Amino acid sequence: MDNIITVEHLVKRYNDFPAVDDISFSVKNGEIFGFLGPNGAGKSTTIKILCTLLSITSGRAVLNGFDVEKDPLKVRQSIGLVFQDFSLDDRLTAMENLYFHGMLYNVPRRVLQERMDSVLEMVQLTDRKNDLVKKYSGGMKRRLEIARGLLHYPKVLFLDEPTIGLDPQTRTAIWEHILHLRDSLGLCIFLTTHYMDEAENCDRIAVIDHGKIIALDTPANLKTSTVGGDRITLTADDNGFMAEELKNRFGLEAVLQDDRLSFQVDQGDSFIPRLVAAYPERVKAISLHEPTLDDVFLALTGRGIRDEFLSDGDRFRQRRLRRRR
Ligand SMILES: Nc1ncnc2c1ncn2[C@@H]1O[C@H](COP(=O)(O)OP(=O)(O)OP(=O)(O)O)[C@@H](O)[C@H]1O
């Protein structure tokens, strides 16, 4: 089977509000699929539907050949879940946590011990397997949760913000494990993340906004098709004024992100000297960079993925700029 997940015209309404608004996509066997979107875009709603935790308003979702509404038990046996909140019992050891999960998922007793050993080995926790989980670091707990999610040999592992709240070193280590799982087990990994550097590791990415999928491609293709040229980031003494000037004089659409303007231009290295010469007193800082997934996100949604951290003033200015366009 080529596609492990198929979603067709999926709609989920809360009362009249369409949290998921007619989305269709498929996920291939053995790929890392990133599901990205700003807050409230509809990511959790979609994931909950795929995990059989939420009913569908209309449309269809099939996972591992099983319809999520008609065959929820078969779907549950096909998936592993690692959600944002830690869900281990920290008064138990790693082995005891795994054992209870194995019982819950009806993993046959004769293979359970061997599986527990094998998943602990995968996340390199073998030598700590008899320690109480409360003695674990945040990264170790997350690794144990991943191991637990694999115990019943799922076809798809759902990871909702797998590295949130972890330090950069631990994030890197968790990603090594995720990539290893894909490469060694051919597992499909369906994940959400707010970290764009991590999203680079995905084989394909779907961007969802206001309940609709607005882009779906490989990270490289998204950059070329969405952003294209170089991106310039600029801080002026008056960002609103400069955005207007960029539009009127150069035909460029700038977006305000944090306290900087960001816009795309074909040949940034020749444009910068022209701009600085035209506004010598006004440009406070300027930089040029090749497209990143942050730029893709910004170009597609008009918002940075970390929009929620903008100050109220910035948010107001950004809305004003968007209205003007
Ligand atoms: N139980 C509910 N009742 C009513 N509205 C809801 C409910 N759950 C979610 N929503 C709304 O549906 C929309 C999509 O929510 P969802 O949680 O799927 O977004 P999300 O992309 O996962 O956001 P986040 O990144 O903040 O987790 C939001 O506008 C949210 O307020």
From TrEMBL:
Membrane topology, record value: Peripheral membrane protein
Protein localization: Cell membrane
Domain ABC transporter: 5-235
GO terms under cellular component: plasma membrane
Descriptive protein name: ATP-binding cassette domain-containing protein
Stated family: Belongs to the ABC transporter superfamily. Drug exporter-1 (DrugE1) (TC 3.A.1.105) family.
Matches recorded under PROSITE patterns: ABC_TRANSPORTER_1 (PS00211), ABC_TRANSPORTER_2 (PS50893)
Record SUPFAM superfamilies: P-loop containing nucleoside triphosphate hydrolases
GO biological process: daunorubicin transport; doxorubicin transport
Organism: Heliomicrobium undosum
Keywords assigned by UniProt, alphabetized: ATP-binding, Cell membrane, Membrane, Nucleotide-binding, Translocase, Transport
One GO MF term attached to the UniProt entry: ATP hydrolysis activity
Record-linked InterPro entries: AAA+_ATPase, ABC_transporter-like_ATP-bd, ABC_transporter-like_CS, DrrA, P-loop_NTPase
